[in-house]
Amino acid sequence: MLPSGTITFLFTDIEGSTKLWEQFPDEMRNAIPVQETILREEVARHGGHVFKTVGDGVYAVFGDTPSAVSAARAAQQRLVATSWDVPGGLRVRMALHTGTAQLQDGDYLGPALNRVARILSAGHGGQILVSEPARALVERDLPEGASLRDHGLQRLKDLAQPEHLFQLVSPGLPETFPQLRSVDAFPNNLPRQLTSFVGREREMLEVKNLVLTSPLLTLTGSSGSGKTRLALQVGGELVETMRDGVWLVELDVVSDQAMVLRAIGAAVGVHEELSFKARPMVDVLVDALREKSLLLILDNCEHVLGPSAEAAALLLRSCPNVHILATSQERLGIAGERVYQVVSLSIPGRQQPPDLERLAEYEAVRLFVDRALLSHPRFTLTDANAAAVAEVVQELEGIPLAIELAAARVKVMSVDQIAARLHERFRLLTAGPRTDVPRHQTLRAALDWSYDLLSAEEQRLLRWLSVFAGGFDLEAVEAICGDRPGIDVLDLLSRLVEKSLVIFDEQNGGGRYRLLETVRLYGQEMLMATGEDPTAHARHRDWYLMLAERAEPALAGPEQKTWLDRLELEHDNLRAALRWSLTAEGEAETLLRLAGALSRFWEVRGHWTEGRRCLESTLTKTAGIEQPSRVKVLASAAMLAFDQGDFPRAHALGEESLVLSRRFGDKQGTVVCLTLLGLEACSIENFPRARELGAESLRLSRELGDSLGIAGGLAIIGLVERGEGDTSKAIEHLTQSLELFQALGDRLRSSLVLLNLGLVYRESGDLRRAEALFEESLALFQELGDRWGIAFSQSNLGIVAWNQHAYERAADLFGQSLVLRRDLNDKRGIATSLVGLAAVATMQEQLERATILFGAAEALRESIEVALPPFIRSDYDGLVATVREKLPPAAFQTAWTRGRTMDQDQAINYALMEASLAY
Questions:
Q1: What is the pLDDT of residue 404?
Q2: pLDDT value at position 749?
Q3: Rounded distance between C-alpha atoms, residue 98 and residue 7, angstroms
Q4: What is the DSSP string of 290-359?
Q5: DSSP state letter for 710
Q6: How far is Cα 251 from Cα 304, in angstroms, rounded to an integer?
Q7: What residues have CB less than 8 Å from 529, skipping those under 6 apart?
Q8: Which of 70, 405, 626, 844 could form a disulfide with 429 if both were Cys (CB 3.0 to 4.6 A apart)?
Q9: DSSP structure class, residue 554
Q10: What is the predicted pLDDT for the residue at 549?
Q11: 3-state SS, residue 756
């Protein structure tokens, strides 16, 4: 069993193994197993455990330090005494460190492992290094004849504090080694880092490789993204690789090329010639560095971009072994330059529950906790504050500077209080260290620095881009922001991307742009300060109104999915346009048009609660304003209330829309309202009222000579008769309605009436005729390319198959409908398909699967506030009772909870994959 608590780690690796593998692959292939066997035997003999091997390295853990030291000595003695086929032998270095670590899935996590790895990298083959914590626990209990040689404080790569290191000296082991490979053993001027470096393991590896293979690498990213810290860490990693050192050149206060060259010279110890025959500084510098092999870190180039680029080009042209790692908000733009975008730290997803162990794996969370400890030494990540920590790093989008400034507040505020105040982050995040450069002391100063470097037109575009929410495309930017003659919006937008203020995401051959939320909030403040916000928001609203009205007629045809997806993609912008219209004055007509145009999208995509809220808010905002467009909003709000089973509200809204349409003399609109109210009355089984409304709709349509309205009225009458159990009359009137719709060439309404006819036959027990009608409706929907209708028909065919006890066919049809509903994000339909699959699973004795699906469907229905689908209502309680009785109580509860805690995608994937449905 692996130990926990305070434990001692022994790490080993082979010095120069990469080169040995290249030169002597066969010999190494034979030697590595021997080396590993020796290590494993001695670790086990001394009570330790090998918990991991990485390449030729072995990682072991011990419950006590003396055993670890004895194991290391014994293994090293055997390794030194072994006769190896590899020329020169295998030189294994070892490191020992004592600390605490988290045991997870047979591996250990925590800073102690990083520390022992860094100690190992400082040693030489045949050497055993011991940390100060390990020394303190073993000094009086060393193996016989062994002693510890003090190597003093050593600055190791990646560690904030110097490490006091010791070498284990013992008979049978070599004693003399070169100077330890600490940072200070190699030429450099890298500053000591006072805080630990968190995360970025992948970036470190990638950037190191790029530096070694490129003459110039530029790290780009927004202000506060961690470019400088990453560059310094990479420099520390490369100190022993660069023969003539790693040199930091800080460009914060320089302003021209001459000053850039002087700053480089000062860093590498090359000074201007002061005689009257003095050569230009560039010549002096080139001569000094021509034969050198070194790395220059040019930090903070963005405000001297041209001079930095010129200096870099001059040096790289004449100094073949000089490498440059630059940090800048945009590329230098010279030949041979490679660019690496420094992105934000990893953050947990917003839908992810804040499980402590998983939360601690995210870089942004680890950084927050690490920096919080500096301000509040007793701070810990707990169940009580986990959700708030997750919210803070999510809201700050993993930006290191912002997270560090937020963490500094834990000495005076709880994490919940910090999270609650992030809407005013520029006032809150102002507690940076006084020794930092001014732009890193507050979040606003960091953004002011970036903003001040922009041209006036770039500043204006950044301000206007803040009206977008979630993301935007080029077409929208050009329409909303391109109102000034002679301005190339694409060029300006490209420059903001280059300067790391706008993010470009490539998507399926196209692309969208977005702002980090912190940049967007800053842009909004600047927009308000200039007084441009009403104009910018109005243009934004007008563009998305146009988009919604363009999409509306296409939501029932072959382009249905394309436009539903487009509106879903732009949903945040549509919400923003609605919010602004709700708060602005004099926007009643456009507000009514926008809300009305989006109602079908909200209905199909299952945004019923949100859609109702927006429609109701629109009606409240426009109360007392009687315009034809209000009729549509009333009817749409009634339909969503109807969908959610709120029949009293649906009735009230429908009646108001009817009154208003009559007042405007809008007979066509009156027919629509009568039809809606008739459907609502049928749903609440108020058949006398439904018959009255259907008859009035029929009369008015005949008066207008409106065949479409007549067909709709006949359909209402047919539905009334279905509800009253008059099957023959229902079939008669629905058939007449169908014939009229077919004569008009209205395939969509024809397919809907076919569905209702099928329901009449199914309820009367004529399953064969019902199946034929559902098949016919399916074919029509397929011709129309109407995926919602296709899925609805497939689902009804699945119900027929279920009634016929054809459970495999039912599962197949429910599965097919689920796939389409997933693509449409039709939440009500998804819930229906899940219930259908659960019902089938129950009958097939797949009890755990049925329980999980019932639970998932229930959770989804609750989230969108809809009732059970009609086909299952009479059987639902019995089916759930069946699986509850047949499963052990604990198993039922576990499966039910598992289903209820699945998100929509998880539930769908489970339903399809578990049934082996290959869609």
A1: 79
A2: 77
A3: 6
A4: TT--EEEEEE--GGGHHHHHHHHHHHHHH-TTEEEEEEESS----TTEEEEE--PPP---TTS---HHHH
A5: H
A6: 8
A7: none
A8: 405
A9: G
A10: 92
A11: helix
